[in-house]
Amino acid sequence: MADAGLTTKTLNDKALSDKAWPAALAFFLALGALPTIIFGLLVAFHELALLPGLISWGICLTVALGFGILLGRDMAVMAQLVRSLRMSPDELPKTTNLAVPGMRLLGQEAINLVRAERLNQARASDRSAADHALLERLPDPLLRLNDSGAVIWRNASAIATFGMETAALLRHPDLRAALGEATSSGTPVRQSIALTVPVPRHLDATVIPVGGLAYVLIADRTRERNVEKMRADFIANSSHELRTPLASLIGFIETLRGPAADDVEAQQRFLGIMAEQAHRMQRVIEDLLSLSRIEINEHQPPETVLFLPPLLERIAAGMEPMLQTNHTRIELSIPADLPRIPADADQLAQVFTNLLDNAIKYGKRNGCIKVIAATASTDDRFAANGVLVSVTDDGAGIAREHIPRLTERFYRVDKGRSRSVGGTGLGLAIVKHVVNRHRGRLLIDSVEGQGTTFTVWLPTRP
Predict the structure, then answer these.
(1) What pLDDT is attached to residue 26?
(2) E strand or H helix at 160, and its extent?
């Protein structure tokens, strides 16, 4: 292949010097050898005079050598044409320089073939680029696997949806079985997959074998399943938690209509209890709806980036009325250089509001609540690529047997005290699901008689 900077003349000269002489010698041997031998024999046997024989021999030699040079030159140019698929159009050799009859037409045909091949390559490249762009922009995750089941490509949706969890997905036994079936049968196979970590997910995977490769198209059905579960859970939970206050309200209303219809003092007392029960039902419904909304999107990690210190300071300031009522104070220890994290600001505000609310309600009167933020490298129990926020109270503490169940819905260590301070039993369940959505961890440490510490670890990157 000629250099990109070569002109046509330089290319032709180089072709002549590299290719013409061997071709000319070959043509001369093929075309001029036989006449030369014949003239030599005629002269040797005195059938032709010496001078005319030498002249005829010279003419034959000159013609053969001339045609050999021209044909060799044209053959060199034709060889460049055949190898010129990577040249730019301006660098192609000129067929007008071809001298042997018929070679010019053959050269032009070669150039036409080169241009047609380039056009086909360009069209194929455009189609390939368009197909790749389409696959890259598919809203559903798509993975391409080699014959051993390893990922060799995935689109943007697959990266955003699974990230570092792709390996866990590919190890799922149901997906491995679908891959084996699709490979052996050569036909697409659809399989439902349920993932449990880091959060529950319901997926429909379609495995499509193509040659030695396999494409896996994944449809995430988690949201639809969560909506169905939310409806069932909401009905079950609301009917369970609202039954008692509703029965209380109905009883008081019947009493006010009957025996206490003219008892002003009893009316005021009953109305106060009824208002308290109504507020309790309102809080339960609000927390149930909030928890349901969080669970619907729990499988989708947040994408926005958040700087935690201002959020924590704002939440602590908002707790001032409760602190004054309980004669409690908050000590904040939040470094200004805390790394940013991918997070939903509203949901994290709910998490730390619930934790501080519990610390104030169940902490010691005239006590102190400590809120400490730090990088995760300060605690060996957590991965280093994260941020830690701990909320510590100095209350009565929690018995060890209760700690594993604290994040269950409506689980209460002391049901009477929880209701008396306005707890719904859903605060820590909300905390757990929000932390799960952020791919974080919640750790609870408690010593009876000394207090409780809730530690939240949030990753600085997905």
Answers:
(1) 60
(2) helix 156-162
Residues 213 and 226 in one domain: no
Give the residue numbers spanning the domain of 29: 8-126
Burial class (CB in 10 A: 0-12, 13-18, 19+), 258: exposed
Pairwise CA distance, residues 87 & 114, whole Å: 10
| Cis before 198 (ω within 30) | yes
In this structure, the number of other CB atoms found within 10 A of the CB of residue 119 comes to 10
Question: What's the CATH code of the domain at 241?
Answer: 1.10.287.130
The answer to whether position 2 is within a domain reads no
Is 294 inside any structural domain?
yes
Identify the three-state secondary structure at position 235. helix
Instruction: Please tell me the distance from the alpha carbon of residue 75 to that of residue 261, in angstroms, as a whole number.
Output: 119
Contact 413, 398 (CB under 8 A): yes
Structure tokens at 206: 């379609």
Six token digits for residue 131: 């197909």
Looking at the structure, do residues 206 and 325 belong to the same domain, yes or no? Answer: no
Same domain for 248 and 339?
no
Q: Which CATH number does the domain housing residue 311 bear?
A: 3.30.565.10
Q: Give the residue-averaged pLDDT of 11-24.
A: 49
What CATH number does residue 181 fall under?
3.30.450.20
Length of the chain: 462
- Residue 132 in any domain: the answer is no
Looking at residue 84, what DSSP letter applies?
-
Whether omega for the bond prior to residue 52 falls within 30 degrees of 0, making it cis, is: no
Q: Place 305 in a pLDDT band, splitting at 50, 70 and 90.
A: very high
- Same domain assignment for residues 334 and 251: no
Measured CA distances, 146 to 164, 172, 212, 250 (Å) = 19, 17, 7, 67
Q: Where are the beta strands (DSSP E) in 359-436?
A: 368-375, 386-392
pLDDT confidence bin for 368, thresholds 50/70/90: very high
- What DSSP string runs through 260-299? TTT-HHHHHHHHHHHHHHHHHHHHHHHHHHHHHHHHHTTT
Domain total for the chain? 4
Q: Is the pTM of this model over 0.70?
A: no
pLDDT at 334 over 70: yes
- Residue 311 has phi, psi (to 5 degrees) of -65, -45
pLDDT confidence band for 216 (50 / 70 / 90): very high
User: What digits encode the pLDDT tens for the residues 160-169?
Assistant: 888 777 888 8
Establish if 1 belongs to a structural domain: no
Residue 63 sits in the same domain as residue 148: no
Token digits for 334?
A: 């939040």
CA distances from 378 to 355, 388, 390 (A): 22, 9, 12
